[in-house]
Design goal:
binds magnesium ion; binds adenosine-5'-diphosphate; globular
C-alpha cells in the first residue's frame, strides 16, 4: 500500500458510507438512536476534506489524519472508536517505517515525492493495532454485537491469507468476506455493549449497525486493492 492507495481506500469508504447512510441509520433506528449513518457520513465528509489539505509523507500520515478527524468530528460511540482505530493503524505504520538506524524509510523518488510503501504484512500489523486500539477504548469482546464482531474475523482472515503467501488484494478480499459473515452473525446476538445493550433481549434479531459499517470499510479495501 502506498499513499495513493491509502487515500483511495479512505475515499472508497467515504463513498460507501454516503451510499449506505440510510441503511446504517435504519439499522440504528431498530436498536439505537438512528444516527449511525448520519454520524459516519458527517465524519468521512470531514475526513475527505482534511485529506485534500494534507501533504502526506507516509501511509501512516493518511491514516492518522483520518482517525484524528473522526475523533474530533463524530459524536456517538462509533466516531471515537473508528477514529482511535485509524489513528492506531497509522501510528503502527509510522513505527514500522523507522528502520534500525532510526531513519524514516519513506522513500523519496526522483521528483522528491515521498512514496512510502507498506507491504501486506505491514497492513496486517496496522489492522491489528487498529483493533487493539478500538478494544482498549470500547472494551467489547467477540459476541457483544459490536464493530468487533466484523473486525476480528476480518483481521483473522487477512492474517491467514498473508500467512499463506497471499498478496494485499487477496488478503483484503478474504477479510471483506469474513467481515460480511461476522456482520450477518450479529443478528441473533444480544447486545452487551453500547446503546443497544440497554434493550436487553429486544436487541436480538437485528443486524448491528457498527458491524455493518465495518464490513463497508473492509469491502472498500478489497475494492481499491483488486487487480
Ligand atoms: P451511538 O450508539 O452512540 O449512537 P453510533 O450509532 O454511531 O453511536 O454507533 C453505534 C455502533 O457502535 C453499534 O452498532 C456498535 O457496533 C458500536 N459500538 C457501540 N459500543 C461499542 C463498543 N464498546 N465497542 C465496539 N463497538 C461499539
Ligand atoms: Mg446511534
Amino acid at each position: 500500500m502506498d499513499i495513493a492507495l491509502a487515500r483511495a481506500w479512505i475515499a472508497a469508504i467515504a463513498a460507501a458510507v454516503d451510499e449506505n447512510a440510510d441503511q446504517l441509520t435504519q439499522l440504528d433506528s431498530a436498536i439505537g438512536d438512528a444516527d449511525h449513518g448520519v454520524n459516519l457520513r458527517r465524519g468521512f465528509t470531514a475526513v475527505v476534506e482534511a485529506l485534500n489539505g494534507l501533504e502526506a509523507a507516509t501511509v501512516g500520515d493518511v491514516l492518522v489524519r483520518t482517525g484524528a478527524t473522526l475523533v474530533s468530528k463524530v459524536g456517538g460511540a462509533a466516531g471515537p472508536l473508528y477514529g482511535t482505530a485509524f489513528r492506531a493503524m497509522g501510528k503502527a505504520l509510522a513505527e514500522a517505517q523507522v528502520d534500525a538506524e532510526g531513519v524514516a524509510k519513506a522513500q523519496v523518488d526522483a521528483e522528491g515525492v515521498a512514496k512510502a510503501q507498506v507491504d501486506a504484512e505491514g497492513v496486517a500489523k496496522a489492522l491489528r493495532a487498529g483493533l487493539e486500539g478500538l478494544q482498549r477504548l470500547g472494551a467489547a469482546v467477540p459476541g457483544d454485537k459490536t464493530i468487533v464482531d466484523a473486525y476480528l474475523p476480518a483481521l483473522t482472515a487477512f492474517d491467514a491469507a498473508v500467512g499463506a503467501g497471499g498478496d494485499l488484494a487477496t488478503a483484503a478480499a478474504e477479510a471483506a468476506r469474513a467481515a460480511e459473515e461476522g456482520m450477518r452473525a450479529t443478528t441473533p446476538l444480544q447486545a452487551r455493549k453500547g446503546r443497544a445493550s440497554y434493550l436487553g433481549a429486544r436487541s436480538v434479531g437485528h443486524q448491528d449497525p457498527g458491524a455493518t459499517s465495518t464490513w463497508l470499510i473492509f469491502r472498500a479495501l478489497a475494492e481499491v486493492t483488486r487487480t
